[in-house]
Specification:
- The chain has helices at residues 7-17, 44-53, 89-97, 143-148, 156-163, 174-180, 196-209, 216-224, and strands at residues 99-103, 111-117, 124-128, 135-139, 169-173.
- The N and C termini lie far apart (82 Å).
- The chain has 231 residues and is α+β, with helices and mostly antiparallel strands.
- The chain has one domain.
- The protein is 32% helix and 12% strand.
- The chain contains eight helices and five strands.
- The strands form two sheets. The chain has a three-stranded antiparallel β-sheet, with helices on one face.
Length: 231
């Protein structure tokens, strides 16, 4: 019997050649990337100009919407903001939105603890890794609303990109997110009036970024939200 090769040497050789044993999975390395798009959310005047250019029409194909059309799980395999950095999309949202943040030593993608100052309600919500939390990830323009506004005609990859774009997402209070559902800006606004300005800017910026239409009542509501912005 030949001499045994130490496992350390075998592992090193595999890393150098880019090979790995059958059935195993090599995690993508963590890559530091921006967690928000440049110039997002747009300032009030730019949001106003973007809103004026959006197509105005009533929603379509609402009866064909299915959550699975946007992908079944969070995915890092997109070119959206935060994509291809080796981290789960939800972890990226937590890393961006939580205060008093404590990340993992071995895996900086993992958020061990933090506190969310919920933009929608003003609540302070603690977060601890692997414990039940009152924090959920909200699509500011909900997936169902995006579908009705044009996403029904996108490719599956484009919808996956939208669902994982950090510009579209916010960490928020769980119950408030559930109450919001897929309602549009004319049917739902954050409880905190202090957030109306940024909510309108984010909402409009998302619509413009993805070429989504607005309904007449939705456009009217988005025209009124900037009134909450500081002068």
């Amino acid at each position: 019997m030949g001499a045994r090769i130490p496992l350390v040497i075998v592992a090193a050789a595999l890393l150098l050649t880019g090979c790995h044993p059958a059935g195993s999975r090599v995690a993508a390395p963590f890559v530091q990337v921006p967690l928000a798009g440049a110039g997002f959310p747009p300032p009030p005047e730019i949001a106003k100009a973007q809103l004026a250019k959006l197509k105005v029409e009533w929603g379509r194909n609402w009866e064909t919407y299915k959550r699975e059309e946007f992908g079944r799980t969070w995915s890092d395999e997109t070119d959206a903001v935060g994509g291809r950095n080796g981290c789960d999309t939800r972890d990226d949202v937590l890393r961006r939105d939580l205060g008093e943040l404590r990340e993992g030593d071995r895996n900086p993608c993992v958020v061990l603890s933090g506190v969310l100052h919920d933009p929608y309600t003003g609540k302070e919500l603690p977060y601890t890794y692997r414990r039940a939390s009152q924090i959920q990830t909200d699509h500011v323009v909900a997936l169902g609303a995006a579908w009705r506004a044009g996403a029904y005609g996108w490719t599956p990859q484009r919808r996956l990109e939208y669902a994982n774009d950090l510009d579209v997402l916010l960490a928020v209070d769980k119950q408030t997110n559930q109450d919001k559902g897929s309602r549009t800006a004319d049917k739902w606004k954050p409880q905190r009036r202090e957030y109306w300005c940024e909510y309108g800017r984010r909402y409009t910026g998302i619509k413009a970024k993805y070429g989504l239409s607005v309904t007449p009542p939705e456009k009217l509501a988005l025209e009124e939200l900037p009134a909450a912005c500081p002068q």
